[in-house]
Amino acid sequence: MKVSKIFYALLALLFITSCTNEFTMTHAVVDTETEYIYVEVEPDTQIWIDSFIQPASQNGVDILWVIDTSGSMHVYEDELLAGMEAMLAALPISGWRLNMISNSPNVAWIDSQFPILPGDDIDDIKKMYDNMSGGPLEAGFDATYEYVTSNAYAPTWMRHDAAFLVVMVSDEEEQSKDTMIQVQDFVDWMRYFRSSVYMASVINVDATRSVCPSPPNTYYIGDRYEEATNALGGIVVDICSEDWAPGVTDASIQIEPHSEWKLTHIPYESTIVVFIDGRPNPDWEYKTDDNTVYFDPDPPPDSWVEIAYDVESYSFGPQSTEVVPGVWDTGNSPSHP
What we know:
Layout: H1 5-16, E1 22-30, E2 33-40, E3 47-53, E4 61-67, H2 77-90, E5 96-102, H3 105-108, H4 122-131, H5 140-150, E6 163-169, H6 183-193, E7 197-203, H7 223-231, E8 235-238, H8 245-253, E9 260-262, E10 266-267, E11 273-276, E12 279-280, E13 284-287, E14 292-295, E15 304-313, E16 321-324
Parallel strand pairs: 4-5, 4-6, 6-7, 7-8
Antiparallel strand pairs: 1-2, 3-15, 3-16, 9-14, 10-15, 11-12, 11-15, 13-14
């Protein structure tokens, strides 16, 4: 996981000043210059950092759901269809196209369904899902690659100037053995394929975070999916969640440039500090009625935005976040490419 230098400086200073009412947040702007920001906080404070990469405006977005078609996935069909319906509701009124394939590469490269378009509904989604080819393999990375590079039908609906969002859905670990053997192979290819790429994964997560009635066996935990998703700054959803809609909605929203960002927790307003690509930025306003930071102007495309604050009260939500409680908690941390 890559994090900007601000976090390492802050971590060290938290240990040094743990008995005072003040912390110093630092970031090295150039090799020979450091900017210092002083913020009054409570003793033994925990600094929470909401962060995101500002998407670039694109000529729409091509969305590809890569779905595990093995028998064990049938128990998740209702959640899957509801999640797709939630995505349709969250997407803009135009500019997007959506298709779905099996995560079995031997059938992904020959599937040729007409995409879901704005105006289609859950009936169209269900029809596509029912007509999707199934296969025995569990190789989402290879299946995506084979569909994009070898499927003759894919170029008829995918656009070279659109953003690309891939949503992986599986109750088993990713098992590509053909082209995408290493996770980094898939991440590098995604970044090469399009200038703006996004990823979400609906998978089994490790037992410490899983909401499954019984902790998933290590074999079924989607570590490779999660690693790739984090590398691309995406959204991970626990497959055992009763409702996938919030996470899937977040995956939809991440492709649109952000003019605002709802904070994960309630901050002490005076402690909020906003950084864009590591530099302090004053062009924002915080509103208490909706616990949201509003930007004016919007952060530049592809910029790394960090909103740090001392937490007044906790209210856990689906935002991409990092917490600095004196030691690192990387369980929900996004990665910055």
